[in-house]
């Protein structure tokens, strides 16, 4: 089975050579409220399984800690993980972009690091096997100073389950890695008409749908019984090829808002029991999510929010709109 990127092709709304801004979505999720206490995600590595990255981008280059190519681009050379499509660069920027000499944009966790695992080629297409290999690589990767992957973001999906992929995801989760994926863009606006995309639909994955600036569910965002949270996904400014910035739309853009948020959350919690970390992260998100007056099939437990209030002590009683078993 093949997998593909999940964003709306026609929504490359604008391309800018230079951009200096603080995206409004950072304030929507209240990321800047916790930047001091969370150290902007410093010390945490996010593995981005996507189309690669623009390795020379002015707002990304110094946060790229490593990478590997699992696609068929560049004759399969594992050392070349350059992005020729733009999707992976955009996703990476939402997570960890930074301003360089006052130019560029900020991602959610601008001091986190990115491990770029290229699983899709210049056409935005990859294989299940490439994703499985990348997850295994992420689980076993050790950085130059002993860093390990704490978060995996997958803004991709396919229509069918795969047991080998599911086992790989379970193994990563057991190693204390929090896994985030896009819900998919096959929605028809009907919360009772279910659409599934894998790996997002798996129980061990935080499946993220899209909302607009008014916190209304995006028409295209998949609806199903396993939607966990929603995040901004329409007209999202981020990094792109050739040192540029573009607006893109899709659940692919929503997922990295959650992945970046996890990089912040990890610095606000006790991580002494690594196997429990994904559980504690999920309960932080659950406790602080902004409840929305829409079907749980569309918005799950609500819109992600961050706060420096220490509510996430393990054992805090939370009554979710929907039950998630990690």
Describe this entry's structure for a reader.
It is a single chain. This protein is an alpha/beta fold and 326 residues long. The protein has a single domain, classed as Rossmann fold, CATH 3.40.50.200. A hairpin with a 3-residue loop joins strand 14 and strand 15. Helix 3 runs parallel beside helix 6 and helix 4 runs parallel beside helix 5. The C terminus is likely disordered.
Q: Structural class of the secondary structure composition?
A: alpha/beta
Radius of gyration: 17 Å
N-to-C series of helices and strands: EEEHHEEHEEEHEEHEEEEEHHH
What's the number of helices? 8
CATH superfamily placement: Peptidase S8/S53 domain
- Tell me the span between the first and last alpha carbons: 25 Å
List low-confidence stretches. Answer: 9-19, 311-326
Can you give keywords for this protein?
326 residues; alpha/beta; Rossmann fold; seven-stranded parallel β-sheet; three-stranded antiparallel β-sheet; 8 helices; disordered C terminus; serine-type endopeptidase activity
